[in-house]
Amino acid sequence: MNDPAGEKLDVVIVGGGMIVHDQILPSIYHLQRTGLVGTIKICEQRSAPLRALAEEPRFGEAFPGQTFEPFPALEEPPEEIHPDLFEQVAAALPPHNLVVTAVPDHVHDRVIRTALKHDQHVLTVKPLVPTYAEATVIERTARDRGLLVGVEYHKRFDRRSLDARGQYRAGRFGEFRCGEAKMIEPYYYRRSNFQNWFTKENSDPFTYVGCHYVDLVYFITGLRPVEVSVRGVEGTFPNGNVGYMWSAGRVVWENGAVLSVTDGLGYPDEAAGTNDQCLVMYCEGDDCGAILKHDDQFRGVSHGYVDRDAGAAFRYVSPDYFRLVPWQGDGLRPVGYGFESIEAIVQAAAEVNAVAAGLHGDEALSARQAALGKIDDRGLLATPANSQINELVTEAARLSIARNGVAVAIEYGGERPRVAACGFAQ
User: Fold this and answer.
1) Burial class, 421, CB count within 10 angstroms (exposed 0-12 / middle 13-18 / buried 19+)
2) Phi, psi at residue 370, to the nearest 5°?
3) Please, what CATH class does the domain formed by 159-320 belong to?
């Protein structure tokens, strides 16, 4: 690929787990079908997850004739491990294409920096990286090379979130003062690949899924968090690894508002949900109260099935997040904010390339950097430059949960923001 306007983006997806199956790959397949994406390669450490993706019947129905190039090959013995294969595939990709990071949280930094080293745009699942210092290195590297790094906080593209942002910033809710958020994921996560990496030293429910709602309050209000405390509840995975199965967090914002955040891996597999998630924000006007309430678990759609293919006979259904539905073309197409979030990041990467079409050297770089600056300033896509409060909160939360819920301050004064555990030497 040589950067001219109209060129398709070749895509390398690093990771082949649940989020790739449920959201990323079907989204990229559709963007390939509509002409935005060219070739698709997927890298994993083992062949088994790639074989599961390649043989998924739903993909054959939805995207007839489409496939991806697997690394390692599907014929590779499933017990063979290829931990560095993604580096070779990223290195072979011509500059200014796209690497998708869909690996466990603590591996993000390595994959993203490898992609940037080879001049690739990046789409990464949230959170970006565990620390603010890592985020600043990524921000600087991406800016210097004129590359987009988009963090896939898909709740930003939920229409109710976009509407809330516009209404709040127009003053219609007054000022946020107190609220609560919740995201309880299914119990079966404990039996999945989570048990191999979702351990105490790597992650916890607050930083893994609670980050969605911390980001969303920031996205809606523009307020910055100034203090975080998280208490974890430990448990043991089926393979014997110990992790935080539950967490209770509190985030204090710069105007004094408080958000309670409850997260966990324990929603009943047989329940209707398939998870439990919501956001409530209580606000104040001059002489009245206001409320913003999103029930994200139940979107007003219930299905009772004659089979148990969905995991239970009765389910609440959320077509707003991600569904494959009939359309005028062949197969099925993805709809919902899960798809629209990925589409927006891929489109933004293509637009950054397009502004430099026909330019060379420093002139092309300056054009890309100007386009990236506009994306940062608009604030709809989460980038390392405009959403670093998330890395500060993640860093503070990890420090807090390791110390049984001690309050950790986020300080914005001085040359750069920092986190500091109250009453403890750093």
Assistant:
1) middle
2) -65, -40
3) alpha beta
pTM comes to 0.95
- Burial class for 60, CB neighbours closer than 10 Å (0-12, 13-18, 19+): middle
Q: CB-hemisphere CA count at 13 Å for 108?
A: 26
3-state class (DSSP) for residue 278: strand
- Residue 216: Cβ within 10 Å count: 23
Superfamily of domain 9-155+328-385: NAD(P)-binding Rossmann-like Domain (3.40.50.720)
List, in sequence order, every beta strand (DSSP E) within 89-196.
98-101, 121-125, 149-152, 175-186
* pLDDT band (50, 70, 90) for residue 298: confident
Long-range contacts, 408-411 (Cβ 8 Å, 24+) = 408/227, 408/228, 408/229, 409/226, 409/227, 410/224, 410/225, 410/226, 410/227, 410/228, 411/226
Distance CA 47, CA 66 (A): 19
What is the residue whose two structure tokens read 């210097």?
Answer: 144
Domain boundaries, the chain: 9-155+328-385, 159-320
Coil vs helix vs strand at 292: strand
- What digits encode the pLDDT tens for the residues 58-117? 999 999 999 999 999 999 999 999 999 999 999 999 999 999 999 999 999 999 999 999
